[in-house]
Amino acid sequence: MVISVDLLINAIVAGLLLGGFYAAVTAGVSISFGMLDIVNIAHPAFIILGSYIAYIVNISFGIDPIIVSVVALPAFYALGALVYQVYYLSFEKRGQESLRGLAFFFGLLFITEVSLILVFGVDYRYVEAAYIGPSIHLGLIDMPLRMLVPCLVALAMFGLLELFVTRTFLGRAIMAVSQDQLALQLMAADPIKIKRIAFGISIATASIAGALLIIIQPVEPSVGREYIGRVFAICVLGGLGSMPGTLIAALILGVVESLTSTFYGPSWAPAVSFGFLLLTLAFRPAGLLGR
Amino acid sequence: MNGLKFSAIAIGVGLVVMAFAAWLGLDYFYFAGYTILQYIVLATAWNILGGYCGYVNFGSAAFFAMGAYSSVALHKFDGEIDTWFPDNIAPLLHAIFPLPIPILILFGGIVSGIAGLGMGYLTLRLRGSFFAIATLALAVVLQTLVVNWDFVGGSRGAYIIRPETIVIAGFEINYIIYLFVLMLILAVIALTTARAIERSQLGFGFATIRDDELAAEASGVPTLRLKLIATTLSGAFMGMAGAPFPYYIGYLQPASAFSLDYAVNSIAMPMIGGTTSWIGPLVGSVLLGSLQQIATVTISSAVNLLIVGILLVTFVIIAPNGLVGLTQEHWRKRRRP
Fold first, then answer.
1. Angle at A35 between CA A29 and CA A39, to 5 degrees
2. pLDDT (tens digit, 9 = 90+) per residue, B78-123?
3. A189 part of contact set with chain B, CB < 8 Å
4. Domains in chain B with CATH codes
5. Which residue among B125, B128, B313 sits closest to A282, beta carbon to beta carbon?
6. Angle of helix A224-237 relative to helix A5-29, nearest 10 degrees?
7. What is the model's pTM?
8. Per the CB 3.0–4.6 Å rule, which of A1, A12, A78, A290 could disulfide with A239?
């Protein structure tokens, strides 16, 4: 097979753009799973919820989906805090988080997804915005704005999160809770409160990620399932809880997936992320930048 | 009550169910009953690994689908005999093929059992939630392979025409009744196996893994061997449940065979019934299975998944030990007022 250079370059660029978006999708799980050790497999469902909220407001009032998602942040934060409170009281407190906690989130995934199906049906929905459609041409490279804008927003969000986690007091407290909960307690801080805040933030990222998702592709309720694997693959590959690692892993996965769908056909793309995940879990569970 | 007595009683119950079905004389009963029995097998299989050993398997659908697709592959193989083999071998193969469904069930069990063994080796490095995520990954990788495997229909799916009737020992039996009986037998075998495990040394070994794997290993429990037994058995039963499925449904496509519905059901049913004994998955799957059949007929099939989700979440929060746990607690309270 002759690989044409511009096809290759475009596939890599598209992969990097996609990877930036994947970073936004994974940011939440990186916090909840990576730092708090909460296996929130329902995270993609919350992302789809974000997509639908962006969709409704966009269709009814014509407001830009990204603005909608930023406005919706507090609501998602509150939802996350609530979910954590239920999770804490029912599982963490009783020390049953492993088996039943997993089942809890699995159930939550289905409830969210099926509720969306019951309300909106299984039709694909999409949003309208000025930047969906046109693209920028730089020599050989084609960059659709539909991909570029989500990627930039994702990177901005990711950067802010990284700054928050490493520079602010609260962010450092979240890092501390992920390292040693008991020590934090000895410093007279309430680990439960900090975890609640952190989980709230992790769900809040789903609002933005959801809006970006529906800009990139039409969405129907079960699309989220495809992201379960991607999100955990990136999170594990990046080294749990390491934000820079997550970003690198997201970009790698984006590029590999893009190359796979360009050269082997899109039907093989889902196997890439899960294959990655299986290989990482089997050979280097600590991830790229893991401790 | 020993194993023999138990299986005798289980077969007795099965016969009563059969008699009831014959008395109703409704074909629909067999269709609905088949689904419920299939869930009994799936839930029991899941519980062997999930309930007894404490390893959560999100990939039930993959094992189920592997069983189903092994049947499809054998069915397709039957159709290709004349083109693939020379004239002197073909008649010989035609005498064997098409294989009867019990053989297909066995075959599906072997295929999924081998996959289960492979999954068992994953437990060497992966514990807890990592294992659960890896099983989910396994399911998607397998689904992608099947989608890209044209021989079994790829993403277009495969049709299998179900015969109207089958002749066994001179009697002409409606095919759906035949499938129903096979699944009934399979359910009895699965339950008997689960119960036997529970009361054997194997079951105690499993329980030590569930409670504290490190301590178990330190005390000389051969944890790896036990885990491999559990994953293989669990996978094999799921495959066996899936093998007759193409004949039941008539048209199999990857999205329906690998549907997460099987994964969520095979987790929800034991969780709702109770994971510590064989009764739990049985109670859970009969209750939830019937409820879903009723919801599918009266409301819609989307609602029945919602019901499963809500019940699952409610039960893990309120009744961590399921219905069986609730009744046990109730009896304990009555005994000591």
1. 50
2. 777 777 777 777 777 777 777 888 889 999 999 999 999 988 887 7
3. no
4. 3-335 (1.10.3470)
5. B125
6. 90
7. 0.88
8. A290
